[in-house]
Each structure stands twice: as C-alpha cells, then as structure tokens.
Design brief:
With 217 residues, this protein is an alpha/beta fold. The chain is 34% helix and 19% strand. The chain has helices spanning 18-27, 50-59, 77-82, 98-107, 153-167, 181-190, 199-202, 207-215; strands at residues 5-8, 33-38, 64-69, 87-91, 111-116, 134-138, 172-176, 194-197. An eight-stranded parallel beta sheet has the order 1-8-7-6-5-4-3-2. The protein is globular and about 45 Å long. The termini are close together.
C-alpha cells in the first residue's frame, strides 16, 4: 500500500512567525500545504484572504492544496489560479451547479476537488465522481480547528473507496479534521490517500519527525 500524502494545515501555523513555520514545512517530507479559506458565511469563522495567501505562495515550495469554505467559490477561480495552486477544492454544499464548477476549475489548469461536510452522504457524488481529482471528507464540522474527530468518517472513507473503485475514478481521498497518529492510521487503513493535519503537526515538539511518522502510517 502506498504511503499517504501529508498536507499540513496552514490554519494551525504560528502567524506571528509564519515564515519560520513555512521554512520548516519546506524542509519536511510533507507533500502539499493545505490552505483553508473561510468567509464567515458558509462557515462560522473567517481565516485569511488573498493578500496573505500571495505571501504564503511566495514562501512555500510545496504544492498548494486550497480548500474554499465559502459561498460562490467559483467567483474566485482566477484568484486561486494566480496563487499557483495545484488543487482547488470546493464544498458540494456550496455549489448548486457543482459539475459546472468542477469543469471551470479544470479549464483553468488546476486539479478539482470536492468536499463533503460530515452530514453529507457519499452517495451525493455518484454523478460526478469520475470528474473530480480528489474528494475531501470533513471529519469535523468545518469552521474551527482543534475539534474532536468524528469516528463515522472511517465508514465514509470505506464507502467512498468502494464508489471510486466501482466507477474507475482516479480521485484521491483526503481527510481533514482531528487527524493525528491514531486516527491517521485508521483512515489510511480504511483507504484514505491524503491526510490534512494541523495541531498534530504544528504543535508537535519535532515537526519534521511528526510529518515523517505520519507518512509511514
């Protein structure tokens, strides 16, 4: 079984010394950098906007895994593309015309991801699973870091893996929320490909060692 990809969550970094944390991630075995953009409307919190992210993009040498927790994310495809993002991930719940948004993201040259909230069933992806490059399953309710992992996510990963295999989709499975060594191992065993981790990485005594250990799950 392939080792999981690790995407440290910028939301948990030290913004009083962001350059230092990004330098550590650049030196690490992390595969991507996960960026959560929140608007205070779709989720009950606000994170950071594009002026900050342009600075982050200049400092990071990891592919940018951009997760938009916002209404009308399709309005910002060009801005995300201009960051040099590798992946633009939008919420199924925020896009009434999800297939169109997926195609717009791909037409821009980025990979397209779709996120499901904890209360949204995997079956909602039946008609688009072959079109997406990645599905992100939220294992906490989006909007805040440090929440408790929702254990039902393990079953959703297994169900999603079955759907991907059945449809011959190439989509990766990414998990975000409450990911640590213990939950990460369970998720990888269930079929997850990409682990997003915030506090488990940035609050660790040795960030480089923690990332390497996660890759070895």
């Amino acid at each position: 079984m392939a080792k999981p990809l690790i995407s440290p969550s910028l939301l948990a970094a030290n913004f009083a010394n962001l350059e230092k944390d990004l330098e550590i991630i650049n030196k690490s075995q992390a595969d991507w950098l996960h960026i959560d953009i929140m608007d205070g409307v779709f989720v009950p919190n606000i994170s950071f906007g594009f002026p900050v992210l342009k600075y982050v993009a200049q400092l990071s040498n990891k592919p940018l895994d951009v997760h938009l927790m916002i209404v009308q994310p399709e309005k910002f495809i060009n801005e995300v593309k201009e960051l040099g993002a590798m992946m633009m991930n939008v919420h199924y719940e925020a896009c009434p015309h999800i297939h169109r948004v997926i195609q717009q993201i791909k037409d821009s040259g980025m990979k397209a991801g779709v996120t499901l909230n904890p209360g949204t069933p995997v079956s909602m992806l039946n008609d688009i699973i072959a079109d997406v490059d990645m599905v992100l399953l939220m294992s906490v309710n989006p909007g805040f870091g440090g929440q408790k992992f929702i254990t039902h996510t393990i079953d959703k990963v297994k169900e999603l893996r079955e759907l991907i295999n059945k449809s011959n989709s190439k989509a990766l499975i990414e998990i975000d929320g409450g990911v640590n060594m213990q939950t990460g191992k369970e998720l990888v065993d269930a079929g997850a490909d990409v682990l997003v981790a915030g506090n488990a990485i940035f609050r660790a005594p040795d960030i480089l060692k923690t990332i390497q250990e996660m890759k070895d799950l």
